[in-house]
Amino acid sequence: MNMDATGAASTAPTEGIRRLPITIALIIGAFVSILNETLLNVAFTDLMKELSVGPSTIQWLSTVYMLVIGILVPITALLIQWFTTRQMFLSAMILFLIGTVICGIAPSFGVLLIGRVIQAVGTGLLLPVMMNTILTIYPPEKRGAAMGTIGLVIMFGPAIGPTLSGLILDALNWRWLFFLIMPLAAFSILFAAIYLRNVSELTRPKVDLISILLSTVGFGGIVYGFSHAGEGGGWSDPTVYVCLVAGFVSLALFVWRQLVVKEPTLDVRVFKYPMFALAAALLMVMMMTLFSTLILLPMYLQGALVLAPFAAGLALLPGGVINGLMSPVAGRLFDKFGPRALVVPGLVIVIVTIWFMRGLTTTTPVGTVIAMHISLLIGISLVMMPGQTTGLNQLPRRLYPHGTAIMNTLQQVSGAVGTALFISIYSAGQKNYLSTVSNPTDPAQVPHAIVSGIHNAFTISMFVGVLALLLGLFLRRTHAPVEYHPAEPQPNPQPQQ
């Protein structure tokens, strides 16, 4: 379908499209942008000294990244229908490169923060475009392998980020964390300009400014509220509950408006498809478990086992790398056996591993922690990609932009919720332990207090994993429904066994 005289709709032809160059272009861009998310964390100590700011201020370099993506991703469902694949991807990577240059030459914290915001805008535009393109160019029976390859990059980038950052900082200053990214970003833009093709459908729906405002306040308020609570603001901080109340009220109004307007910005009717709704809930629960581990294990390694930050990063590297390598394997197994054959065993591995993590002590060998981390991430890799692909497979093509935007947004929100929840549980466990000892200020008690907090957090995390297992038992293989004209009502397809 080509653009008609009114500009109402346009579909880029996908027959004869060379999938491999397009996939490579997407992978390069995803790797560069996602690697950047964890690359900076190890440099926070150096940044605080050079820029003369405190921990609460420097944390904004991470918080603002999550906040911008949480605000922007819902709007991408609209943008994808207004701009072509090439326009969206190249704009995202150019913005990311501009932000990286600003960060690299930043003379002050304020300029560095502006650069991070621009980087986050690029990443927020890129991720939904990447998933939407994969859904468009690959048939359902081949999407598992394609999504698995994307998953390898998504997991491998954050895994090597802290270790790579530590190596760079040992030899160079923090600015090189950005300088070394610039050539990769530039190469991604050049490669995509040559090989990326337009595959998206342009319908140019009406821009609803009220929906955009409600979405921004809703998702932004929720992500910021939970992030602020988890970063030290605490649940009693008025900023936290004001942001959360404003966020949930705005989100409720946003959902109501999407149901009553003729052309919704983000079509929440995707939740009428049962496997999509189930997969979205499953992924939210799993993201909470994943984020709890990513936050708690480094604290345990550095605080209870007294490892240096670089050594802690190295200890977590094998699990992250193996998790990345498992993604394409899980993708191929998904194409062959369906989701439940992977998701249920994966969740059992997660639950059993977290049960063992509840037994961590101040004398647990580092090798044991590494083995537990590897086991946990293998289990998560068997759940995340198959669950996400199953949910998106059930949607008709016209809902792909909305489905991918919702999946990405819910993952950002659940990550913020998980971080705040488990940091709160961890901190409460520490305080409870210190209240029972004769000298709470004794430095020798700190490792034991950390272990006590870890026990409490992983106990709750294990119950969250059981909830995920109950959801996973209902997951079924799905196929996209027969397409209808947009004006006609869509069927509510039943999952196939």
Question: What this model shows, in words?
Answer:
- This protein has 497 residues and is mostly helical.
- It folds into three domains: 16-205, Growth Hormone, Chain: A; 206-264; 269-480, Growth Hormone, Chain: A.
- It has helices at 19-39, 44-51, 55-58, 60-79, 85-105, 109-137, 140-171, 176-179, 181-195, 209-233, 238-260, 274-303, 309-337, 340-357, 366-393, 400-434, 446-472, and strands at 10-11, 201-202.
- The protein has a two-stranded antiparallel ribbon with strand order 1-2.
- The chain is globular, with a radius of gyration of 22 Å.
- The model is unreliable at 1-14, 484-491 and 493-497 (pLDDT under 50).
- This is Multidrug efflux MFS transporter.
- Keywords: Cell membrane, Membrane, Transmembrane, Transmembrane helix, Transport.
- It is found in: Cell membrane.
* Domain tally: 3
Mean pLDDT: 79
Q: What gross morphology would you assign? A: globular
- Rg measurement, Å: 22 Å
Major β-sheet, in short?
A: 2 strands, antiparallel
SSE arrangement, N to C: EHHHHHHHHHEHHHHHHHH
Number of strands: 2
Q: Number of DSSP helices? A: 17
User: Low-confidence segments, ≥5 residues, pLDDT <50?
Assistant: 1-14, 484-491, 493-497
What is the share of helical residues? Answer: over 70%
Q: How would you classify the helix and strand content by structural class?
A: mainly alpha
Termini separation comes to 33 Å
Assign the CATH architecture of the largest domain.
Up-down Bundle
According to CATH, the homologous superfamily of the largest domain is MFS general substrate transporter like domains
CATH secondary-structure class of the largest domain: Mainly Alpha
Membrane topology: Multi-pass membrane protein
GO cellular component, one term: plasma membrane
InterPro entries: EmrB-like, MFS, MFS_dom, MFS_trans_sf
Protein name: Multidrug efflux MFS transporter
